[in-house]
Amino acid sequence: MAGFLSALNNRGDGYGGPRENRVRLPLEVYRAVRQQVGDDYVVGVRFLGDEVIAGGNRIDDASYFGVEFARAGLDFLSISKGGNLKTRNRRKLARRFTLTRARAATSVCQRCFRMRLGRLDAACRWSLLSSTR
Length: 133
Known about the structure:
The protein is of the alpha/beta class. The protein has helices spanning 2-5, 19-22, 24-37, 59-72, 90-94, 99-106, 122-131, and strands at 44-50, 76-81, 113-116, 119-120. It has a single domain (2-131), classed as Aldolase class I (TIM Barrel, Alpha-Beta Barrel), CATH 3.20.20.70. The chain is globular.
């Protein structure tokens, strides 16, 4: 899915180019999964907040995708930093993706559990556990 969301995705079949097209496949997959598992199952998405590659996605892209995922009804967003091992800038990756950037991308999502680097904070963990009992 990361390849579809990437700003470097220039497919000509309606799934590349502008952000609106690049988010189509992940949203279609989400809707298919939600249809199969129902509303009582937690479904989220992990995506890159910053690809750390020339011409790749940045935080404004992540914010847009976060809004679209929240509107669709995803239960949580897991936002990470970095591209694939062959293309990413390792020096930049040494700097951590800050919580401030993660908050910027997830602030619009009221239903979503805020995740940072794949780890739930204590409040989110409690909310998740409470909602599944």
